[in-house]
Amino acid sequence: MDDGLKEGHSADTAMVNGDGAHGPTEEAESRQDGNSEADGGEDSNEQEVIVIQDTGFTVKIQAPGTEPFDLQVSPQEMVQEIHQVLMDREDTCHRTCFSLQLDGNVLDNFAELKSIEGLQEGSLLKVVEEPYTVREARIHVRHIRDLLKSLDPSDAYNGVDCNSLSFLSIFTDGDLGDSGKRKKKGNELEQIDCTPPEHILPGSKERPLVPLQPQNKDWKPMQCLKVLTMSGWNPPPGNRKMHGDLMYLYIVTVEERHVSLTASTRGFYLNQSTTYTFNPKPANPSFLSHSLVELLSQISPAFKKNFTALQKKRVQRHPFERIATPFQVYSWTAPQVDHAMDCVRAEDAYTSRLGYEEHIPGQTRDWNEELQTTRELPRKNLPERLLRERAIFKVHSDFAAAATRGAMAVIDGNVMAINPGEETRMQMFIWNNIFFSLGFDVRDHYRELGGDAAAHAAPTNDLNGVRAYGAVDVEGLYTLGTVVVDYRGYRVTAQSIIPGILEREQEQSVIYGSIDFGKTVVSHSKYLELLEKTSRPLKVQRHNVLNEKDDKVELCSSVECKGIIGNDGRHYILDLLRTFPPDLNFLPVDGEELPPESQRQGFPRQHRHRLACLRQELIEAFVEHRYLLFMKMAALQLMQQKANKDTKTDTPAITETSDTPSESNADTTQTQTAPSDPPSVTEVSVDSTNQTDSNTSADSEAVKEGEENSAKPATNGPLDLTTTQNGECKNPLEGKELEESIPGLAQAKELAETLVGEDGSCIDPKSREVVLNACKAVGSISNTSFDIRFNPDIFSPGVRFPDDSADDVQKQKQLLKDAAAFLVSCQVPSLVKDCLDHSALPMDGATLTEALRQRGINIRYLGSVLEFVDKTPAKAQLEHFYVSNRNHHFLNCFLSSFPDAVAHLPPDELVSRRKNRKRRNRVPGGGDNTAWASLTPNELWKNIASEAQSYYHFTIQCDSADQVVEKYGLQKITLLREISVKTGIQILIKEYNFDSRHKPAFTEEDILNIFPVVKHVNPKASDAFHFFQSGQAKVQQGFLKEGCELINEALNLFNNVYGAMHVEICACLRLLARLNYIMGDHPEALSNQQKAVLMSERVLGIEHPNTIQEYMHLALYCFANGQLSTALKLLYRARYLMLMVTGEDHPEMALLDSNIGLVLHGVMEYDLSLRFLENALTINTKYHGPRSLKVALSHHLVARVYESKAEFRSALQHEKEGYTIYKNQMGEGHEKTKESSEYLKYLTQQAVALQRTMNEIYKNGSNASIMPLKFTAPSMASVLEQLNIINGIIFIPLSQKDLENLKAEVQRRQQLQELGKIEETTEDSRLELEDKIPID
């Protein structure tokens, strides 16, 4: 079973488990592909690949009425999983109630196969029908219902049971692999119809909505039954129970036959009841069958025919189209679906089916116990960690699903409050062992912090805290399961319940922290010990505060963080909303001045609440930045010392550096009472590479004096351990020049590393002084080593500090100010710079948010980012970002769950930008707030503008939505998408007329549903991720084979932890496909990329920017496999989606259009090809500047098409442009320049030849001897070569020697590139591989 999970059997297993199989699989967590034997000395050597081999074997399975068949199994599997496979197979899918027997012995469902005696290669397992129980009968009916619905997308539209949409198969006509073999390559050219629909052509203004969800012919459901439902005669009366009746069903067949069935212990049979008379006796004939499907096949020919056809289709679908996703994905558009009768759905709605409680002993799940027990699982070696991470992930996704259900039930009014006497906004709820509270300021708890606005922001801050502590994962410290749900304009927080907390008063249970924001504070030694372990990774400083009696209390977290010991003896921490320090840019404090960088941009600004915190990413980037500074200063001083030694004078090291810094105004040094072992420098430096310092940052002033003689820190010092992952703080305007490294600085760094002994004791007094000065300068809390931490209580109202720590507090305040300045002066410019050099290309609100957050910029800084964009000289090149994203974000964020306008405006408002009919269908909270129903578009627009002003400090200088659309070139359809996605609205998929003056764009019938917007913790698969990263690193060094193995291993581990579907698996598959392609294995590339596309559609959404990228890659691999028409369909789909998401004006569009143009050129559609290529040329020129190499390449591509059309004059004109760019950028001698000039000569010859021929014709009339001209259709190979170039791929012939040469070449190129010689022409820096292998 080659390597764990290659499609076949395990995929099925994963699949069935996902299909909401109701067997105990969910609980039977312990399946694991890891070999428990593989313990041993693994942890000592993390990075060695431990390939966990499963030696699979084959067993025969004999089911009643079918031929025996072979099944590949692995020794780690459980018997349960064979059950799942049988319930999914086409010929045995209708059986649910059976046992497997080996030589007459029943196998235990939860036994691992390797533990079963006598089970070996070739054993025969018999499927034996077992008697039904009520539970088994219900599971059977539910399973049959699922089979009947298996092709019906309504669950995906309704966002239930983790179903989601996928449309790839429509564009590929089924599975890619096979169709490639079936079609003959020769005659492909003739039969392709390449004309794209009108709305996809460049320049088209139409943006239709309907093609977003193309009609899938498989979904026209083949009707097997009209009605299958529970009968009104349930449950059976006592005397019938004695006869074995379990329940009654009522069925209407397609032939309009109405029948009543009895489910009994022996199976299903027809009885004689009708709708109004009860007669449970068997009818004649009764057709007793063990399976409902067998019974129905006998009484309804249509059922038999259609059911068989349906199962055939079901089994043909790609497993990824039907496996459940780990978290629910909602679709913002849906067609009008007929509402059909469905007994299971009805039953689920009325019984509070708390996540399949049928098969969990003890009814409801104790979420807290499950969440905490999984954390306590052992984690000493790889198999244990896999098991633990898998259990954690599973419980988390179940908990998130249950919490979402509960939150919706609470808002819909289906749950009784635990304090029903209080007014609605104060109510709290418990449902299914989860505690729910609403995001309102109850009992003026947040009065000083901003009331309801603070109460709305607190849950997300708390969630970030839970996420951070969860990631540190300290043994013995527990957090609550937390999910934040925004639904119908309310914010609901769902938390697991600490055992015993409901029985006692809060005052008694809190033994650490404060319940009144610092008026009374208590501490506890055990909590200090546990929190101390999180202090370094989370950069939280231990500090003292005063309590109400003016006694000192020591804390290692913010005061609000409460410690409670549950009845289970576990130490819980909750209310982690201030885990990270406050953001002073949004927290004006009397008498405190911010650094000039912040003041210049108008900070501090008043914010609507006082809980604005810095993001963890920012803290990390800031500390990293300071670390670099620290190394630089220490190195400079050492060099001075060295210089002094050489001149034999014994003057002390020059230490001005430590006084100049604008930063630590405090000259005091602080000794840390218990220095926790300071990191040996290398340890901290792991991620501080390739960071160059920004001249604009506060810190650079600190080293002005040293700056003259050292230009910049050499990034090739001993720190190059990994490339940074966050916040590169480069001066936005410095080009790609790498600072010349100062000779000697590298040695100085090594010296600096030797300074710090392992225990923090320095070697000699001189060096100690050096370190001391550097520590002071960068604000380190220790004097002997670099260590920056923040005190999260600084500037908290109500918190008082003891007098003796005044100096520390002063230092901490300075540190916070510097961090705030760093955000504005470093991170925002670096984001804009990344957008300018196209290493970040946000396409929509979600990707933009991600780009901001990666750099630690909060969404509330949008206004500042926009201002910065406004002032950037290359503003036109940022238009896409400005426009298509930013404003979206605005308008939408705007009333969406982000900034919180929701508390007083129902989310639907936003759409009233087109007429205000849209909002009538929402009934928020009480009856008193119907004011919104009479809101006019004008008033709404005023609200929007004032909201943008107050939250983002951004002035919208327009009087209506239409003006904004005009001014920023937005598309209403894109706005509609952003708004719907952010607020969870689902609209009917049809064409909307936004510009009609006479009738509103939306009617009440167009709003189909409202979905929750859910935020939760995403548990990570740590080992898999390490493998993935080392695989990426190997690939970037040119070791493709090894990289490929590592990534395959990562894929196995990801599958092991996450199951078959997950965003990270998607990235893994994409990279694998790319490697397969580079190494020449096209079919494998195709298969992996197909999975990546399906998964991206299912997990991220059908029009997510990632999905668009995946479609483009798949098209390339299809083309390479000779499937031209499929490649075109995929590219057209990608272009449609991109138009929908951002419009035509986006740098990525150029890449897409070049791809389309090339493929069209390949199939000889020259005119169409030119439309796309010329559009790409225009966009490239706009975003990369007319002199860029991308533009040169675009010119060349256009020239080739003109050559094919024999329009040599135009061809020459374009190629000349390209040649000029190459000559200026690369010089005469460069191969590109030479190639281009060769091509120019060739074109000139062709043009001359053509002219001669024409003259000949004019001169001699019809009897001219015409030279045959070469009009060449481009060869597929040449088209493919160009496709690879524009997609940033170079090919590698895989002989060992070539590999060596390649490695040398790659290194040489990287050095060249660092010297700024090469402008990267790699297209897409979001793909991991190519940004490291530039092609020229």
TrEMBL record:
Q: Where is the composition biased (Basic and acidic residues)?
A: 1-10, 24-34, 701-710
Q: Where is this region: Disordered?
A: 1-45, 645-731
Q: Quote one Gene Ontology molecular function term.
A: mRNA binding
Q: Name one Pfam family in it.
A: eIF3_p135
What GO cellular-component annotations does this UniProt entry give? cytoplasm
Compositional bias, Polar residues, is annotated for 650-675, 682-699
Mind telling me what this protein is named? Clustered mitochondria protein homolog
Asked if tRNA-binding is a keyword of the record, the answer is no
Q: What does this protein do?
A: mRNA-binding protein involved in proper cytoplasmic distribution of mitochondria. Specifically binds mRNAs of nuclear-encoded mitochondrial proteins in the cytoplasm and regulates transport or translation of these transcripts close to mitochondria, playing a role in mitochondrial biogenesis.
